[in-house]
Amino acid sequence: MKLCQSMVIALCVGAIWGCRATDQELAVPQNGTARMVDTLAAIYRRAQQQPMDYYLLNTLRAAWWQKQLASAGDKASTLHRISYAQELLAAGQTEEAIREIKALLARYQHSAYWQAPETRGLLEMLATAYFRLGEQQNCLAGHADEACILPLRGRAIHRHPEGAQQAITLLTRLVESSPFDFQSRWLLNLAYMALGRYPQEVPQRWRIEGLSIPEATTPLFRNVALSRNAAVVGLAGGVAAEDFNKDGFVDLLVTSYGLNDQVRLLLNNGKGGFIDHTAQAGLIGIVGGLNVVQADYNNDGYVDVLILRGAWLGPAGAIPMSLLRNNGNGTFTDVTYAAGLGTPCPTQTAAFGDFNLDGWIDLFVGCESQGGSVMGLGAAAATAPLDFPCKLYVNNRDGTFTDIASEVGLDVRAWVKGVVWADVNNDGLPDVYLSILGAPNRLFLNRGSSDGRLWRFEDATEQAGVGQPLFSFPVWAFDYNQDGWEDLLAASFDLRYLGEAPAEFALDWLGHPIRSEKPVLYRNNGDGTFTDVTKAAGLDRACFTMSGNYGDLNNDGWPDVYWGTGTPDFRALVPNRLFFGQGEHFVEQTLLSGTGHLQKGHGVAMADFDQDGDLDLYVVLGGAYESDVFPNALFDNEKAASGNWVQLRLEGQRANRAAIGARVRLVVRQPSGSHRVLHATVSSGGSFGASPLMPWIGLGDAVQIDTLVVVWPTPDRRQDVWTHLAVNQTYHLQEGASLKPLK
Known about the structure:
InterPro entries: Crtac1, FG-GAP, Integrin_alpha_N, TPR-like_helical_dom_sf, UnbV_ASPIC. This is CRTAC1 family protein. The chain has 14 helices and 40 strands. By secondary structure, the chain is an alpha+beta fold. The strands form eleven sheets. Strands 2-32-30-29 form a four-stranded antiparallel sheet, with no helix packed on it. The protein has a four-stranded antiparallel sheet with strand order 4-5-6-7, with no helix packed on it.
């Protein structure tokens, strides 16, 4: 196991690293898109010439190793041959990888074949290759929407059994020779399931119970991505769900991690399906990006998009972001350089928030820096510390931004993997919370400005008690218990066990203690401190979370949590996990919901794409290695929601136009005549995946909204109040004006 894990890490370590503006003020050179297209194309050409600096260019890296081995001849080392086989596997040349691994194993003929570390690692690698072959022949070729969703059944059962059958043979020998090999045990159960033979044919000693549901049970959600034209195929990536063309339907902008992977804009056709509008939008050549966030940065009423690039690539990740201005006519223009955002840094996380409450949205970008300790996959490859401080871009109100991070003490140097703005102390000023990989998370309280110019942030991490988990990744602020105070959820991605995610899930499923870090749910105590309530809330589970988001999927008034899980390792066939909120605790619904996809989960967005009165779930799937692509999933909510709802489209006037940071309070009337208070904040949700900037609030069995209060993000915290509103309706709320129901 250790040999195989070291190979996974080694493969990565090679590189891992006011007033409104006038049309004249917002004018930018029309060649902004062309400049970015040329820049990204040049970066890709350079990467092709230096593939060993980019761990995801596996076909070129395999060719490089092949040349090294040919040159060395019989003197080639075993480790170099293993590297070659691993690159073949990552490149999708699986059958060739199998031949190489078998040739390596043929060198060993001793009694401890199944126990010796050097051979056991190769046997694990061979089992992985066969399992991967099964995925390629069944889940990718002739792809069906049901593919790879736990529990595997129906069209998810492999039609071509060779890969899974060979994996079963190898995995059985591995667990028999090492009974505490929970990694192989997990994969063995999945291999049997892939052939329709779980649980009945899994040897009882190795069976993991509880991975299936009764055959007659219909899942709460159904993947409809293929029929809705939303099954974009790619690597890990981000998604922004938003009504970009203002036709009343939620669209999708989707990215993929590959350096030359085309961004996709999918417009909603009004029936829950999508039309690819990428070319018409002027986006051809805008490529790459691991994450994406949205905001109306220029207050023109159309939501713009920021694409984030370079994460995990170390020095090679100094790739520019893309700020895509929504022109309001179905097209976008890349205005990155004209807006002053062209300074490159490796990043996958950013958040828009109006920290100075001037009515113009500002931007925090979390960059990836490293010191002497291993804080990320590529730390060992760096010859010098990576120095990419975080950036706080203040909006200049003229279409441009200025970085003032060093002036206000937010030029943090760390491996920042998530960032969220949230007013955690309810003083009206948005604070910022950073999720850091390999070091304590940090909370900075916004202390305002004494002179209206220089703003001050105070590090309150220790006092607030929110520094965990140590290996933190996606993060968000939400009021999980609906008490009017923003709570914090930071999910873990424990690098120490990067190659052992299946083992951790097996231990978790079997009820054994796990070794890796768990996520942390911090309840806001309302006095500047937080309490870790993860265990009491039922979220102390194995996760290896790479993404996630929240929303009220069952319309009961409590936010639910969905995590995208996995690691770069091909063995990391672990389910994305869904937890339904029930007030102070959560109940897992991964299997019953039909959303437990085994492919690596990345950007997550929740929206009512088909306008049937409940939130659906869009998940970007795929890994980091070149061949680890998969069609994205669109989970249609068919049975989860039974309660009433309301959706709000807020429009600021003195506040920023999209009303990001606005707080909403509802008093709703129950059938008994009693009242219930609900809270929401305008945001896109989690740090990896962006839901619409339109709060969706489940109302349970409430029959009327007696009072709706909006506290706008303005210096005077303006409040607007509306009364006696109908449920199951979308409303347009304009600051200082009337409320209008929408169709």
